Amino acid sequence: MITAEQIRAGRALVNWSQDELATAAGVSRPTIKRMETKGPATSSAGNVDAVKKALEGAGVSFVEPNGMGPGVRMKNTG
Domain residues for 38? Predict the structure, then answer.
């Protein structure tokens, strides 16, 4: 599962506001705010998946924990 930090960082990478991410994911802004502050576990699996897919669609790649913790980066498009 993705983390609150990954959601915030992914949103920052694509320079989206919480409203822009909410629109892209088809969820409410309070849902995004709650996921970013209290963690994705506070939301339904469908909402978490929608947020992850919206960020991935914008070019964010989620990095699994690899000894240094989970992270995000932009996909290599070139």
Answer: 4-60
